[in-house]
Amino acid sequence: HFQVKVKIPFGNKYLDAIFSVPEKKPIYGMILTHGAGGDMNFPHLVSLAAYLASHGVLCLRFTCKGLNIAYRTKAFKAVVEYLKLSDDYKLSGVFLAGRSMGSRAAASVIRQLSQDDDDDGFIQGLVCLSYPLHRPKLQSKLRDEDLLLISCPVLFVSGSADEMCEKQLLEGVVTKMKAPKKIHWIDKANHGMAVKGRTTNDVMEEINAQVFSWLRENVQLQHK
């Protein structure tokens, strides 16, 4: 696969983004963004994008700084529109994905777009890497409102020791969700997906394989 840098118009400025493009013409894509810190070059995102592209899925990752969730959501929406209208890549559908705060923004975009009358099924699903269900030690306030209103398939990949996503609390939210959903727990991983005794690459390989096999299952479900 190869990479193409692009600038995506957003209001009166541009968002930096990179396409990871498969060798043969992709049918599906994924849009991927980072958490509250860092940018699109966060190692987990780079690794996932490369893995997906080498397995035939177009991956578009972008940077949007800022800790305001409404702002991040607006930026993500602009990227979805950009990809949808792109002449270079005519996709049948796209999955939205993010890490930590980026996955909150992705969930928010999906909820907003599904409430619009022009929901055309372009968005196929949501992937939440380290979804920040609550602030550390503040388990009384759950950020679950968007999750409960989404109907497309959702995959959560979370560490079983994530200080912002208590295992039982996420399992509780998931039982209330009406969407088809799956949680893959990375054993003993924290919010940053670090696991004592395992290399970063080893953990990333597990995440990448899980995300891809889930994507494949969900694409096949659409076309039976």
From TrEMBL:
Domain KANL3/Tex30 alpha/beta hydrolase-like: 30-211
InterPro entries assigned to the protein according to its UniProt record, in alphabetical order: AB_hydrolase_fold, KANL3/Tex30_Abhydrolase, NSL3/Tex30
Pfam families named among the record's database cross-references: Abhydrolase_11
Protein name per its UniProtKB record: TEX30 protein
